[in-house]
Amino acid sequence: MSYSGVINMFAYNLKRLMEEKNMNEYELAEKSGITVRAIDQILCKNRAPKLQDIVNIRFALDCDYDDLIPFTNGLV
Q1: Inter-residue contact 24 to 18 (CB < 8 Å)
Q2: Which of 15, 26, 31, 49 has minimal CB crowding within 10 Å?
Q3: What's 33's DSSP letter?
Q4: 10 Å Cβ neighbour count for 34?
Q5: CB 11, CB 45: distance < 8 Å
Q6: Whole-number pLDDT of residue 74
Q7: What does the alpha-carbon distance between residue 73 and residue 66 come to, in Å, rounded to a whole number?
Q8: pLDDT in tens, the chain (76 residues)
Q9: What is the Cα gyration radius of the chain?
Q10: 7-12 — which CB contacts under 8 Å span 24+ positions?
């Protein structure tokens, strides 16, 4: 999968998980320590998440890394 494909997949999965958890960008920002602007840029696919962003988002959403970027199914 291409770099842009991973960014697109991450943004799609992040949006889906936020909807499942009934969490908006402001709540995710507060729980993750990431700025609202950065989260918006990630969701709009204008910014790749940093490794620390991924870790913080994972804990804030109480999900597995595979929920954000499915490494185990051979896509990445």
Answers
A1: yes
A2: 26
A3: -
A4: 20
A5: yes
A6: 53
A7: 9
A8: 788 888 999 999 999 999 999 999 999 999 999 999 999 999 999 999 999 999 999 999 999 999 998 775 555 5
A9: 11
A10: 7/45, 7/48, 8/45, 9/69, 9/70, 9/75, 10/42, 10/48, 10/49, 10/54, 10/68, 10/69, 11/42, 11/43, 11/44, 11/45
Q: Give the predicted TM-score (pTM) of the model.
A: 0.89
DSSP 46: S
Nearest CA among 52, 64, 73, 72 for reference residue 13: 64
Buried b (16+ CB within 10 A) or exposed e, 43-68: beeebebeeebbebbbebbebeeeeb
- Taken as a whole, the chain contains a residue count of 76
